[in-house]
């Protein structure tokens, strides 16, 4: 395995935090949230600014979590209380965040050279690479990331099994039903969006620290990358349960980065990557459409066909 | 238990599409009463159910449940009083969630949602016990997604979810209409059973006159936004569908009841 692939795995694990956020809105809430591009950059911008000003990188990343949450809540309030179409609500927050992110950074790009970051912290842990017969499969850094993301996955899995989590899932699955059982779907939608964008912002904060700079454009196209990870993950690894689905999202994110790395390796330009991303999503959505429609529609078919034993 | 006073509901008021769905409805339901409701299409039956559940807020008048004025309370705030089964078997359950998760949601009806596990072993045992009563073998399929169940099974589950927390009022809006006769009968039987078991105050809309006469202990007929017949049990149990039609014609001053959907058999 070459260096590029090691980097791809590390990146895939960091971007997986964002993909999990996208999974929460697109899949769990069934809400096409476009806030993501803005909240990702928000996380990066805020963390970078705070770190440069001497804030502890852990605290800075936590602040990114909070700020992302506020952005998501804002979109949620626009949609539920302001009755603005969901897509538009997300776009409005995203656009507003672009200006806000510039304000936070003061300029379009903030380098984090020689700062203490979460990345330098992880590197300084000195976890050895996982090598078999001299071939490195997992860098030490990737191992730490992997443990971190699996911990996060466990927390999300747990949350989605709590009473509140069940309400949020039912909001995306059958909002009429969950209202008749006493849940306020405005509230569950807002909580879901807040949580999702909090994760996305944390991902942005991590990525900024990993790549050593925050850029006001670092969130552009992030929603599509998130979707690519979710969809590729579902297609390749299944989504029959929450446990499986969140795992698939993480693996999907890594696979996506590996594909990108291989494409670059094959001689494509970095500027081609947005095209590649769009193609990956298109392929993942259309080619297994048959398989996917079986997976998605089966419940209804089983009912309509009346093959049950009632 | 339920007191509806002078409730009026108009859709699209002041436009060409204005539609008076309910005009000055008064209804007093005593605890344990099981009311069946019939009426032609567009009579306002579903609107009445929605007014009670909080899905719709009346333009004027008041709704009082168990002594509490809930007229302006939204649906989710009334959920602790009102259990509901919809006509569409898809409507009452979350298809991508498992049977036990759906039941956990129903179990939490009207309670504050916390971060404790929605399903635990104690609840699972309770759910299993409840499901056993449905006689559908669902007690062994707690982890099956509800979307994989047949329409009848889903409706049975919806009924269970609507009732096992013993709401003050149970609303059934043509909850057997989308099922084939065999499954419909099964749900009818189950309905009788749970209503009796929990002594639930129930309002059931049906398009089946036979059903309306055989079930419950009071019958209402709605027409054009008003209650035109209110038949008590003593009278109801002696009536046949033909008598019901005659009563309708009398109440309407000769207008005949033409409604293909009604089963007169
Ligand atoms: N949201 C709405 N907007 C406008 N008109 C409505 C709305 N809901 C119901 N109506 C109208 O109000 C009237 C009563 O409707 P409702 O659904 O209560 O009838 P129903 O008795 O349940 O009929 P059905 O037997 O067909 O279910 C109908 O004329 C209907 O078209
Ligand atoms: Mg109706």
Automatic annotation (TrEMBL), chain B:
A Pfam family annotated for this UniProt entry: ABC_tran
GO cellular component, one term: plasma membrane
Superkingdom of the organism of origin: Bacteria
Keyword entries, A-Z: ATP-binding, Cell membrane, Membrane, Nucleotide-binding, Transport
SMART domains according to UniProt: AAA
Cell compartment(s), UniProt: Cell membrane
Domain ABC transporter: 2-249
Molecular function, one GO term: ATP binding
Bilayer disposition of the protein: Peripheral membrane protein
InterPro entries referenced in this protein's UniProt entry, alphabetically: AAA+_ATPase, ABC_transporter-like_ATP-bd, ABC_transporter-like_CS, ABC_transporter_ATP-bind, P-loop_NTPase
Name assigned to this protein: ABC transporter ATP-binding protein
Native organism: Brevibacillus borstelensis AK1
Lineage: Bacteria, Bacillati, Bacillota, Bacilli, Bacillales
